[in-house]
Amino acid sequence: MVKEMKFESSSSNPFSSPSSFLKHNHVFLKFAVCFLLVGLAFRFSDSIRLISVLEPLPPPIETEQETEETESNVSSFLAQTPTSPPTNDFPATNITQNSENVKCDIFTGEWVPDPSGPRYTNESCPVIESHQNCMKNGRPDSAYFYWRWNPRDCELPKFNAQRFLALMRNKSWAFIGDSISRNHVQSLLCLLSQVEQAVEVYHDKEYRSKRWFFPSHNFTLSIIWTPFLVKAATFEDMNGVSTSEIQLYLDKLDNTWTDQYNSLDYLVISGGKWFLKTAIYYENDTVSGCHYCPGKNLTELGFEHAYRNALRLVFNFIKALDHKASVLFRTTTPDHFENGEWFSGGYCNRTVPFKEGEVDMKDADTVMRNIELEEFEKASDKGAEGVSLKLLDTTHLSLLRPDGHPGPYRQFQPFAKDQNAKVQTDCLHWCLPGPIDSWNDLVMEILINGEKYK
Length: 454
What we know:
The chain is an alpha/beta fold and 454 residues long. It has helices spanning 18-54, 68-72, 74-80, 161-167, 179-192, 255-258, 302-320, 363-382, 395-399, 437-448; strands at 109-113, 147-151, 172-177, 199-203, 210-214, 219-225, 230-233, 246-253, 266-269, 279-283, 286-291, 326-330, 388-392. A seven-stranded mixed β-sheet has the order 4-5-6-3-9-12-13. A four-stranded mixed β-sheet has the order 7-8-10-11. Strands 1-2 form a two-stranded antiparallel sheet. β12, α8 (363-382) and β13 (388-392) form a beta-alpha-beta unit. α7 packs parallel to α8. The radius of gyration is 30 Å and the shape is globular.
């Protein structure tokens, strides 16, 4: 409280005589000096606190021009990376909205630096497949760990494994699609493994479809391999070498996943790159055309025809059933092969994300994404009572991450014997840990605040 100081008349003023004035002036001077020193002490203390607040967080372990010593020593990185369970990053309400309480587009934004780094490693997660185990395979840089997806107008909380498992108690969840879906489910398993290790309870002959069980939560998680979603006959080995054209039945869904649909509470469904392969199309058990089949004397219908028919069939199936599961439809994943494809010397050696405007989608990816959005919109508009169908639009945020792929490190120590060795590269799938972990941040946001998103 500030008190008002009143000055009396000169007759009663103690400073009216010279001696009294000097005496009191001396006292006043000492008081002023003392007050000044106290003020400086507080200012100095505040400055220290301010410096500590503004002190920048440590930069990522590596930058784009990383040194050989820090990048090549994978075991050193693992020793520095905490493997304890993640903290509770989700607020109580988990509202992803801006300050004006306007709904936010969580799929539009940018990748921003994140000094906290990965939430697991290849030591703390035992289910990473060898082709995505970039650290173990000798990838020398690790700057790609230190980014997070940041929606333009809101904050996206990090995935919370403990809360996710609590929500999934007595539930079942399946990822339905191709190897990108398998990549996605491995990311989820790694995030959940920091709370509870899953037990593998099933796999098919080729280990493409798998099922895991979390006994403490009675939660089942699956990957159901069905790269076309519709019935298909394929004639290629595990390395993608074909002996004949694929046969696609565009009016029949693949019962590998439809037979299990009624037992599932949650599904993430996706199509993808397999539709770009050479294929013969069947409708009403009769050949109707093909995609890229020179010399076959068949009508070239194009992959667009097949993909649109397949998605339309999927959405109609979901809406027609009495079983009302919660379904996320994930959009296509762009690759980052440069100067060729996987079979013709293409590579991906970038070490930082793209910024907005630095990259365009390839024509085929653009066509697929447009088909996905159109068919999803039609299915959403028509709707069906009890159906929960929402979009998981990972295309754009994935397009901006050319640095997150295994590249040549899809195999163990590819350059150990020859630094100039020619090896097959993977610029489609994602390193684990890596950018695909952010897909699960989006999954959980939609799970928690699903009413905000279509």
